[in-house]
Amino acid sequence: MKTHLSPALRLTLIFLVLLAVIYPLIVAAIGKLAPGGGAGETVTVNGKVVGYVKIGQKFTDDRYFNSRPSAVDYNAAGSAGSNKGPSNPDYLATVQARIDTFLVHNPGVTKEQIPAELVTASGSGLDPDLSPQSALLQVPRIARLRRISEDQLRQLVTEQTERPFIGVFSIEKVNVLALNLALEQPR
Hints:
Distance between the termini: 79 Å
Number of helices: 6
Helix content: 40-55%
Structural class: mainly alpha
Number of strands: 5
Shape: elongated
Radius of gyration: 23 Å
């Protein structure tokens, strides 16, 4: 027993130091070299942090583009989906309420025109991006409230659309925070 206990204790101590001390320190050091110093890339306007590049935010004012719904109310500390299946009655009621709300705020849009991403939360609940189609669907509402031409807003969506890397990796997407900040810039 003694011949097995001593090597087992030594290996345990070695791996404890390696995996509980050295590895986390290396990961933290690498994180400090990343944009934002490991705290995430912040977006600053006039010296004030207004959001994070990779974390979705809630926009409730009809003068702004709406984000994708969040199952965790955009709380990055509790990133998660609802974990309710597509046949769950509570989930279906939540989605129907989102559809009804969207239709009230976007007259002229039919239920069939609403992309699923505008009424269903992402797996993380923090998705910062929309498809260009989802952003364009909101253009008439924002144009009416801001008294801006729809063509100007469509152009803004096009300018803010991120294309896939070399045309293959990822999909076209629009960061909602960046789009709404661009909306605030004088044109």
